[in-house]
Write a structure and sequence with these properties.
12-stranded mixed β-sheet; 2 helices; elongated
């Protein structure tokens, strides 16, 4: 642990960390209206009993499709944040453990244990101290889970970093527990005064 000597924090901005990885997922099936015009158009000439039976069967099929859509899972990376460590007025650090989870259509996540899955963290410095240390492609890779220790100093003036993840070499989204949604990346604005502020974002669609 670094002490409260201002000279000790000269090159701490960014983070110390090692390791990363994960997977991608399925697509949702569309539902249809069993009592809509198209589905009812072929019922002419049927007895009331037969028409009722067809309507019941269609309703059951719709319920099954909806249940399948709800059960579809998407793999995401989840950030497990620890409490900030404060070094007086000079510096601040925070440990984050990134793990893989399965997210359903309602945003509920279930941890996925895979000791062999490779999680990779790629970072881009988008503002602040130009000397901030970041994870370049291929540098921060770990199996099973990815530890990340972020640090910011008062002397460095703060910085902003975009974090993206890969699982087994393929892009994977990061989960936000507040909105219960997955995003393309997270931007972290770091300062000693405000700490580490996470903002989850998606890439803008290409024209």
């Amino acid at each position: 642990m670094v002490g409260d000597d201002p000279e000790s924090f000269a090159d701490l901005d960014g983070h110390t960390m090692t390791q990363t990885y994960q997977l991608a997922n399925p697509a949702a099936s569309s539902a249809w209206d069993p009592m809509g015009a198209d589905s009812m158009s072929d019922m002419s000439g049927l007895t009331p009993e037969a028409a009722t039976m067809m309507a019941v069967e269609a309703a059951v099929e719709l319920q099954q499709k909806q249940a399948q859509a709800q059960n579809q899972q998407t793999l995401v990376v989840t950030p497990n944040r620890k409490k900030d460590i404060v070094y007086g007025p000079y510096a601040l650090s925070e440990d984050v453990q990134y793990t893989v989870a399965s997210m359903d259509s309602r945003g509920k996540t279930t941890p996925v244990k895979s000791d062999e899955a490779k999680i990779e963290l790629d970072e881009k410095l988008v503002g602040g101290n130009p000397k901030t240390r970041i994870c370049n492609p291929g540098e921060c890779v770990s199996k099973g889970s990815l530890p990340d220790t972020m640090a910011v100093t008062a002397s460095g003036g703060g910085h902003s970093v975009e974090k993206r993840f890969q699982l087994d070499g393929k892009p994977i989204k990061i989960y936000d527990a507040t909105t219960k949604k997955a995003y393309d990346y997270v931007r972290i604005d770091a300062s000693v005064k405000k700490g580490f502020v996470f903002t989850f974002r998606n890439d803008q669609p290409q024209p």
